[in-house]
Design a protein that fits this description.
This protein has 427 residues and is of the alpha/beta class. It folds into 2 domains: 196 residues, D-Maltodextrin-Binding Protein, domain 2 (3-Layer(aba) Sandwich), CATH 3.40.190; 207 residues, D-Maltodextrin-Binding Protein, domain 2. Helices cover 43% and strands 12% of the residues. It has 18 helices and 12 strands. Strands 2-1-3-11-4 form a 5-stranded mixed sheet. It has a 4-stranded mixed sheet with strand order 7-8-6-9. Strands 5-10-12 form a 3-stranded mixed sheet, with helices on one face. Helix 1 runs parallel beside helix 13, helix 9 crosses helix 11 and helix 17 runs antiparallel to helix 18. The radius of gyration is 21 Å and the shape is globular. The two termini are 20 Å apart.
């Protein structure tokens, strides 16, 4: 999901104007840790995944730091998102990665903190990073009392809706049964409740996890811990089975746009921006890129409705972090930057640039009137948990879910087959 969050956000603005982002080129890393100067240097380098078409909050924060500290020079090393994981690990292994690198919590991806720390590639951080740890996420940022990543924002994973399309449809469905009814009504008018990228596993995987939010994690937020302890399995979980069966329910009710099985990310951006679809299973910060691409259109973040009598629930977690390369020769300068970035003013600014929620001061955040107004009560009342796959032991589990849901949509796989594959991938 984390890759999906950034991958979609990078495609949103450009997808309405150009068919692909194939022109992205790998930026060179001339200012690596290997070529850096002494430990007393005020220069350091920063690597992050990005697109040439969308402002990077990581680069903007670095530019603001240099304005506030004129004696500091940061060399930015942006990388195309699709190759970032492999590039980062290759450079870390070669000892020439940037001084500061953007990572993700957990262990499910190539840029994930836990395996990189286990391999000795990341430097332990200080109390500034520790204080930014979201509740319940300690185990995804390090172990044995050490923290190897500094959270940058809180990303909500739910639905992003075109509010004009919501009004045209009458209202947003209050529960899952009403959702099915609305799907049928919209289909008859040539529209759809959801736009999905059926050919893109990250999107089908996120949809499935969204369906599991109310069916699995609202009932048992510690379900992942139980799976790790071998107390439960995906195949033996009524909640997970219900979530994947709901994919067929949505398909049969006409909730997806025509041709959904073969659709790419452009189907989501065009559908939401054009109002032919009401909502999409995309990370919440994408509302900002959509609003930029479709000027004058209001987008909002909403929770996927639960079954009648159930509890609405969303995912919210710190999906990105700053980490310091253990081989860096500029650790002092790198950590000074992280200490500055941890200050409330900077965490708020970072979130505003990216369209996310701030990693600090969330208890005082004004949800009213903004894109998050519909999920504000859920966040304030604690009706959320981290994205499930952040806590899964490897990326193969999520891959089995994402590609398996593609098979469900095309009729080639059953929910039971997908769940069994996820258990096998867990290892």
């Amino acid at each position: 999901m984390t890759q999906h969050r950034r991958s979609l956000a990078l495609k949103v603005a450009g997808a309405l104007a150009v068919p692909t982002l194939a022109a992205l080129a790998l930026t060179g890393c001339s200012s690596s840790a290997e070529s850096a100067s002494s430990s007393g240097s005020k220069e350091f380098s920063l690597s992050f995944a990005t697109s040439n078409t969308i402002e990077s909050p990581f680069q903007k924060l670095g530019e603001d730091y240099m304005k506030a500290h004129p004696d500091v020079k940061i060399t930015f090393n942006p990388q195309p998102n699709d190759s970032y994981d492999q590039t980062l690990r290759t450079q870390l292994q070669a000892g020439n990665a940037s001084d500061v690198v953007v990572t993700t919590p957990g262990s499910g991806q190539g840029r994930s903190i836990l395996p990189l720390a286990e391999a000795g590639f990341l430097e332990p951080l200080d109390d500034a990073a520790r204080k930014l740890l979201p509740a319940g996420s300690d185990s995804t940022f390090g172990k044995d009392g050490k923290v190897y990543g500094q959270a940058t924002e809180i990303t909500v994973a739910a639905l992003v809706s075109n509010e004009a399309a919501v009004k045209a449809a009458g209202q947003f469905p209050a529960d899952f049964a009403a959702l099915e009814d609305q799907c049928k009504t919209l289909e008859s008018s040539g529209k759809s409740l959801f736009a999905i990228a059926g050919s893109a596993p990250p999107n089908t995987g996120l949809m499935a996890m969204s369906l599991a939010a109310t069916r699995v994690y609202a009932e048992d937020p510690k379900w992942n811990d139980k799976r790790a302890a071998k107390e439960v399995t995906f195949a033996g979980s009524d909640g997970w089975k219900s979530a994947l069966e709901a994919v067929n329910t949505l398909k049969d009710a006409g909730c997806f746009q025509k041709g959904a099985a073969g659709a790419g990310f452009d189907a989501i951006t065009k559908g939401l921006a054009g109002g032919t679809a009401v909502a999409g299973f995309i990370p919440a910060p994408s509302w900002k890129q959509l609003a930029s691409a479709a000027s004058g259109t209001d987008f909002a973040v909403r929770a996927l409705p639960a079954d009648k009598g159930g509890k609405d629930y969303v995912y919210a977690s710190a999906n990105y972090a700053f980490s310091v390369n253990a081989a860096s020769k500029n650790k002092e300068a790198a950590k000074a930057f992280l200490d500055w970035a941890a200050e409330p003013e900077q965490t708020k600014a970072f979130a505003e640039i990216d369209g996310a929620l701030p990693v600090s001061g969330l208890d005082k955040y004004d949800f009213e009137g903004g894109a998050y107004k519909n999920v504000g009560e859920l966040i304030k009342n604690g009706n959320y948990s981290p994205l499930p796959n952040i806590q899964w032991p490897n990326s193969a589990v999520y891959d089995a879910l994402a590609t398996g849901v593609q098979g469900i949509i095309t009729g080639q796989k059953s929910p039971d087959q997908v769940l069994q594959a996820m258990d096998a991938a867990w290892g």
